[in-house]
Amino acid sequence: MADLSQLVKAYDVRGVVPDQWDETLAALFGAAFAQVTGANAVVVGHDMRPSSPGLSRAFAEGAAARGVDVTEIGLCSTDELYYASGALDLPGAMFTASHNPAQYNGIKMCRAGAAPVGQDTGLAEIRALVERWSTEGAPPSAATPGTLTQRDVLADYAHHLRTLVNLTASRPLKVVVDAGNGMGGHTVPTVFDGLPIELVPLFFELDGTFPNHEANPLDPKNIVDLQAKVREVGADLGLAFDGDADRCFVVDERGEPVPPSAITALVAERELAKHPGGTVIHNCITSWSVPEVVKEAGGTAVRTRVGHSFIKAEMARTGAIFGGEHSAHYYFRDFWNADTGMLAALHVLAALGEQDGTLSQLVARYDRYAASGEINSTVADQPGRAAAVRAAFEQRPDVQLDELDGLTVTAPTWWFNLRASNTEPLLRLNVEARDAQTVAQVRDEVLAIVRA
Questions:
Q1: Which of 56, 85, 98, 170 is catalytic?
Q2: Structure confidence by residue, pLDDT tens digits, 24-52
Q3: What is the pTM of this model?
């Protein structure tokens, strides 16, 4: 029987090909996906990794064998697959391992309308079926197999995004985009076509071996090329996409990174201008600036746990118009509550293009605090170390503690969050304060306990 314990994660399937999974297993996932969703038709897409076309086709054939009609959209970004799931109202499967190295691949699955599939919403049942069938053999095929149809939705996806953000009033902008040899190299030219943008492309060649740098813009070493090119050509800003192009990271005209919390606040303000009084979701480690800006703009901010399944569930529950995370995931009600870095990027371009100042001047009002960034500590006893931190702070009269997600300690001029990783023996620390000196003091105090 296939060991899926290392392959099926909380929100998706991800592992090394062919060591942990292959096309035979992909076909079983396709059959299980068809059964669990109960759909008559599904849509399937894939990224540029060498193993993606074969795995994607095997999955499609596995679903078709169960009598399900499959629309194959071929090469696409993850948010383009979400677009297809929403626009066609079909369950969808995206073959990608996001920013993981070349030997990895995976599946991100959703129900019709891009509704998430995670452990509690179908993934556990899919895993159970695949495990059973890999031992006993798959159930007999349907009397009438489904069809496989190819369809290109890139132009429709681009058109839909451009209906949501109006760039007609924008001044011309010079924009460097680092696609990291990922799917941004496929989507950006079509999305930006006809906009008042001079595009300076970096690493647009689709190459799932990532010859230039890892396609993970949250790691500072992976945006060095982008920063240098922005300064070299005198660009107005730079954008970096991850491998499957669902996350977008921004640098300003000086090549300085713009915190995702500042982007969240900027986009939230723009969405609230369209939907007055709306609700905005943010996770518990985004900046204080996010709820402040939301309140100033007449909206309601709702704080939630880290992770897209929690954000999407809270958006559905509250009818929120927008949600943002510190990891540069941005979620839109106008995009079926799914995340799309491309739509967030268009908002940034529109906000910048509608005024004469620089991006650093524009984001200054959304970037109000000093922050540590995420600091990881390898610890054998995560609960024990977290409990020691709690004990050190819970007696203080000037702080409040909450455990919505890990431990958050809040004082009048600073806060920190300490969370355990779900997948590694790590404790993750984020600190924010009114000034950098206070950040350093709180950071050092907490780390001294964590690493004792």
A1: 98
A2: 999 999 999 999 999 999 999 999 999 99
A3: 0.96
